[in-house]
Each structure stands twice: as C-alpha cells, then as structure tokens.
Design a protein that fits this description.
The protein has 84 residues and is of the alpha+beta class. It has two helices and three strands. The chain has one domain: Phosphoribosylformylglycinamidine synthase subunit PurS (Mth169, Chain: A).
C-alpha cells in the first residue's frame, strides 16, 4: 500500500525563533500590527510503501526521530493518508 505522510516540524515553544521574529518585524513594517507571534517551521511530504498504516506511521516516526527533526529544539506532527 502507498501512503502520504505530511509532516510539520516546528521549533519548540521555549526555543527562540529568530526567523519568526524577523517576519513579525517585517509585517509590522508593512503596517500589519495585529500579528502577535510568528513561528517558522518546515513542511515535509513523504510518499512511502508500507504493509499497513501502522507500519507507515512507524517508518515516518523513525525518519522524523533520526533525520527530519532535531528533537532537542523541534517537535513534529504527522498526518498519514492512504493513496488509492
């Protein structure tokens, strides 16, 4: 079976986000003052073959834990969808 894993990797709340701060400042410079916080992360899409949804989730978690996210500074969320 084929699956698509949509992964969002974001800096943890307690970690400073200089990119987000720069974007917030840029928005204020454009006259957009209603924005109270900006966090910048990454969106990763994986297409994978797996025997089951559980196997696909396990492979995706392993990829995130070992390569895609720095678990000291980042957290991630996974959305898994079967492709027909």
């Amino acid at each position: 079976m084929k699956f698509i894993a949509e992964i969002d990797v974001m800096p943890k709340k307690e970690i400073l986000d200089p990119q987000g701060k720069a974007v917030k400042l840029g928005l204020a410079n454009l006259g957009i003052h209603q924005v109270t916080d900006v966090r910048i992360g990454r969106h990763i899409t994986l297409e994978l073959d797996a025997d089951s949804e559980e196997d696909a989730r396990a492979q995706t978690i392993k990829a995130c834990d070992k390569l895609l996210a720095n678990l000291i500074m980042e957290s991630y969320q996974i959305e898994l969808n079967k492709i027909s």
